[in-house]
Amino acid sequence: MSSVLTTASAADIETTTTPEPRPSSRGEPVWELAELYYPRQGQWTEEEYLALGSNRLIEFSDGVLEFLTMPRLTHARVSRFISDMLRAHVEPQRLGETLWAPVSVRLREGKLREPDVLFLRNGRPTTRDVPDGADLVVEVVSHDPKDIECDYEQKRLEYAEAGIPEYWIVDPQTGTITVLTLPAGATEYAVHGEFRPGQQATSVLLPGFAVDVAACFAAGRGEQR
Is residue 61 part of a domain? Predict the structure, then answer.
């Protein structure tokens, strides 16, 4: 009995021992230096993530750093258009504030995302200067297939589980704005509408807030309307 436990414990120790960093070769990153200053993937803490000084878009998921595709010009223009429209609606009414990436949002302990645009009602709590959740988030879909899947599927689940009342998916590739809302007591989003050019994308959370779909994507192309 004792010997079995001892053997199992030794095996556990062996499998969890941090391996030695592989030596770096000419033309490669200096892996040994990285080992000195940074945790391994899966071992990052929220504090270490928040202390990063980087101009990259990085999200944090249960100890793992996730590096996002850098936005292209169309993406940046669409994000600015949406944020400008949202600010013009909420600020005169003093409903809250509109922010944009790379501001992190805490979905739960160990899970931080950086929506392209977000709206926070007045009084929303923060922890370590990071908002706990949000009231409305917007993701502008990038060209990368991994980001497309993430915005449409993974983040749809995560934002709903975090209780964020409204999620907008703005897709320049398909020319659509999908507005998802979270019914009271639900853990999955319902589709409020999938809006196309010639229509106004409307909000349930913010009555009166609407975005002209054609104008939004024209802005993404750099056109003045």
Answer: no
- In which domain, by residue range, is 130 found? 73-220
DSSP run (H or E) holding 214: helix 213-220
The CATH code of the domain that includes 135 is 3.90.1570.10
Q: Name the β-bridge partners of 112.
A: 60, 106
Tens-place pLDDT, residues 138-192? 999 998 888 899 999 999 999 999 999 999 999 999 999 999 999 998 999 999 9
Pull the structure tokens for residue 70: 């850098």
Sign of CA pseudo-dihedral 71, 72, 75, 81: positive
Per residue in 95-119, pLDDT (tens digit) is 999 999 888 899 998 888 999 999 9
Q: Report if residue 182 sits inside a domain.
A: yes
Closest among 132, 134, 151 to 90, alpha carbons compared: 134
Q: Does 156 fall in a domain?
A: yes
Kindly state whether residue 46 falls inside one of the protein's structural domains.
Answer: no
Number of domains within the chain:
1
The pTM for the full model equals 0.75
Torsion of CA 72, 73, 76, 80, to 10 degrees: -170
